[in-house]
Amino acid sequence: MADFERRRIESFMKKAFELAKKIGTKTAPNPPVGAVLVKENKVIGEGFHKGAGFPHAEVEAIESAIKNGFDPKGADIFVSLQPCNFYGRTPPCTQIIQKYGIKRVFFSVYDLNVEGKYEIKGAEVIGGVLEKEGKKILLPFLTFLKERRPYVILKYAQSIDGKLADREGRSKYISSEKSLLLTHRLRAKVNFILVGKKTVEADNPHLDTRKFKNRDILKMKKFIGGEFPNPVKIVLGIPNFIKELKIKNGNNVVFIFKGIDEEFEKIRRFISDDKANNISFFSIKEINPSEILSFVYENGGLTLLVEGGPKTLWLFIKERKFDELWVFIAPKIFGGGKGFDFLDSFLFGEELNLTLYELKRLGNDIFLRYSAREDKMIWDF
Amino acid sequence: MADFERRRIESFMKKAFELAKKIGTKTAPNPPVGAVLVKENKVIGEGFHKGAGFPHAEVEAIESAIKNGFDPKGADIFVSLQPCNFYGRTPPCTQIIQKYGIKRVFFSVYDLNVEGKYEIKGAEVIGGVLEKEGKKILLPFLTFLKERRPYVILKYAQSIDGKLADREGRSKYISSEKSLLLTHRLRAKVNFILVGKKTVEADNPHLDTRKFKNRDILKMKKFIGGEFPNPVKIVLGIPNFIKELKIKNGNNVVFIFKGIDEEFEKIRRFISDDKANNISFFSIKEINPSEILSFVYENGGLTLLVEGGPKTLWLFIKERKFDELWVFIAPKIFGGGKGFDFLDSFLFGEELNLTLYELKRLGNDIFLRYSAREDKMIWDF
Angle at the Cα of B120 (from B118 to B124), degrees rounded to 5? Predict the structure, then answer.
């Protein structure tokens, strides 16, 4: 392929990527996909998939072209994921592409749901365009498909010496305003956020996205038997007080716990006090990453953000059940305090090794983003 | 002053700074000073002070001009520190400047050793040129003069979660080769390096500068009654074995300790075994920062690098007796291990707050340089 032609193709594919990234994981449990329709080097239509039940990106792009008075016949289509060839809630995209006389189909990532190679009558099909970049966008979806669990991000703020709180447990706003803004941006992009009950009791956090102004208004629907806007907040255990919790304000909270009598008693007391909407209680067998990840997976979550505290984060670190780690380091030293220290540990040579992906200065704070994956990949959202 | 003229002056002053930085703190306990002699916009001579007993930078610059066949008469001189007007081991520079008919004297930092303002007959004297930058170079010297202690740098490598070693104390080469190179560069620039005896026993380190190829060959002389090349290594306490220690290879080690019988016994055993040169034993009243800093100050050290372990570093952190902190963060998580945790701590709101000065990526490691000073300044070496 000529260099010029390759660059042209990649540039349209990047446009498809940008469209996919617009929707992020709000499509859960479906993948985010973008598509661009091009005729005579001009974009005549574009679209992205909005989630389960909505038309696929290819259809959105074709329909947007027609709506704007263009004929898709003879056009090229650029899609971030291989067009489907099966019946789901919508007909196969391969049929639609054929029907409208699309001439060439460029796609990035091969879809694991598509079985084997296929042909589209009258069209040339070229797969694997910027596949590595395409995979980065689809990483939560690919993890969901292959490993039957959400893509897991651990996030916390610490002092230089690795303390998440002082020795009396105080931790609120260790890091700066700028760090908070980045956290809110991340929260707006994930399906589920998990915290331990001690964090809720100590800090009574909102866990919201209020500082991220450009957040997507699309919502993940029909989870856990109700309609939960994105992100759903999960609390591990039942906090000592529920009525006054700030996380409730968004009306999308799930408390999960091991079903012991004391915990049930707290719930009963709460329900008799207040008939809140969209607050759920779920009992799981054990408090461990497998159970928690199964819960999220079964509720269709592509992404889970674990925000702490140290005990909850350590659950995932210890079992190496996460994909990436976000650490904010504030320019402080506590000496003693709450870190991962009071728990078990790795010995030298067996310690958890990560790969540094991003490093940013935020005033006097720093922000570090690590990949914990063997393939060293990281989610591009 | 015209903008052009100011830029011209600053550019020659920066040349004087570069000369001062060449010698670093090897001049201890004298300050590093550079001087540039300029005639008709051309550098005709340059020099820097090489240490106690050697000519001052001004003299070096004037003599280099004469040696190269230039007449200093009518020239401008640019010096990073105010020229002296008193007799030390050399005559006052003000007299020399006058003698050679220098027309204008530009200097950066006002010297605390000079009392009041002075005039140099036949010359115009302009002080405070790029004074802030000049002070950064002289920071160890200014600290030494004002606070009667060396400029203290704490340095260590840790895992992301703030562990300097695993729970069994293993720590050697937590960080990468690139981090080590930067450490060796720093070591080559300081007068004294301090470690605790446990670090010596656990890691048996060289504490040398072998990876820093361009190190200055000039040596700090006549310290602690002998001739110690720069840097002098201080070990806090007497390690269980001395003969096999790698730090001895450079022949510039001082063991300081609180004089208890058991420690004395170890020394006696060592001395009877081996008559090593340039290894000294000093007893101090208490193992605390004040005593250690007094020891270094009295031996003319402008700079002290504290390299650990956690217990030794914490001595200085706890009492806020340091100027800057160097932290290397390796992309690892240990969970439990040796951090500052087993010691006392600051509570939220009272914790040690630092100012981030530099942030660098070194492969998968990161390097952080913080100022702990109230004036937020940092040494430019």
Answer: 100
